[in-house]
Design a protein that fits this description.
Layout: E1 5-10, H1 14-26, E2 29-34, H2 37-47, E3 51-55, H3 63-70, E4 78-82, H4 87-96, E5 100-103, H5 108-123, E6 132-135, E7 138-141, E8 146-149, E9 152-154, H6 158-169, E10 175-176, H7 177-184, H8 193-207, E11 217-220, E12 224-227
Parallel strand pairs: 1-2, 1-3, 3-4, 4-5
Antiparallel strand pairs: 6-7, 7-8, 8-9, 10-12, 11-12
Organism: Commensalibacter oyaizuii
InterPro entries: CheY-like_superfamily (IPR011006), OmpR/PhoB-type_DNA-bd (IPR001867), Sig_transdc_resp-reg_C-effctor (IPR016032), Sig_transdc_resp-reg_receiver (IPR001789), WalR-like (IPR039420), WH-like_DNA-bd_sf (IPR036388)
Keywords: DNA-binding, Phosphoprotein
Length: 232
């Protein structure tokens, strides 16, 4: 049986590790496990997994400490598995460098969809190395600074274009409000989330078929936004 990818499960609950292990191996994943931050750092460095599934409540430290440490030397996709419903906890983990999160309890189909999205994201060339990026009917031509929806050219303001570019750079990844405000407007605006709401509304009006029910420019309630290039 061909092994496609490897995953590191960092989870302190043995029943959850066992459940995930069985589900992932059934889909031809190579699986590694541990229950602590200290061991997770060793496993990440030695195994170099394709993706990490990380619980926040671990046996030795908070999982955010793993993110903080590993982001100094690795860009491995990190998907948070958490029973914590506090949005501030999720935002903190994402701001530290996690790529996505899923709240327990969760279904295996949703988990696999999130994992596939992260693998697609890292397989894409960086936005600085591509001339054309497409999602749905929208085509962004970076070399000519041109955006089209179908055959019609769409005029974006400089801020709208910069915001869209930041979302494209992080396609498939949850971007927190703080991350986007810092990248697009700068440090003086990180406490001004209404700017982001207004300009995301503008982008949806111009690029989505149904701005009130967007397919590509998605809201992560209380956290931020995510661009997906195609539905899973």
């Amino acid at each position: 049986m061909e092994i496609n990818h490897s995953v590191l499960i960092v989870e302190d609950s043995e029943p959850i590790r066992r459940f995930l292990n069985q589900a992932l191996k059934a889909e031809n994943w190579q699986v590694f496990e541990c229950d602590s931050v200290a061991r997770a750092l060793i496993e990440t460095a030695s195994r170099q997994p394709s993706l990490v599934l990380l619980d926040l409540g671990l046996t030795d430290q908070d999982g955010k400490e793993y993110i903080k440490e590993v982001r100094q030397w690795s860009n491995v996709p990190i998907l948070i598995l958490t029973a914590r419903h506090d949005e501030e906890e999720k935002v903190a983990a994402l701001d530290m460098g996690a790529d996505d999160y899923i709240t327990k309890p969760f279904g295996i189909p949703e988990l696999f969809a999130r994992m596939r999205a992260q693998l697609r994201r890292i397989a894409l060339p960086s936005v600085s190395s591509v001339n054309i990026f497409q999602f749905g009917p929208v085509c962004v031509d970076f070399s000519n600074r041109c955006v089209k929806k179908g055959d019609a050219e769409v005029h974006l303001t400089p801020i709208e274009y910069k915001l869209l570019g930041e979302l494209i750079k992080n396609v498939g990844r949850v971007c927190t409000q703080r991350q986007l405000l810092l990248a697009v407007w700068g440090p003086n605006y990180i406490e001004q989330p209404h700017y982001l709401r207004i300009y995301m509304g503008h982008l949806r009006q111009k690029l989505e078929d149904n701005p009130t029910n967007p397919k590509f420019l998605l809201t992560e309630v209380g956290i931020g936004y995510r661009l997906i290039s195609k539905s899973d």
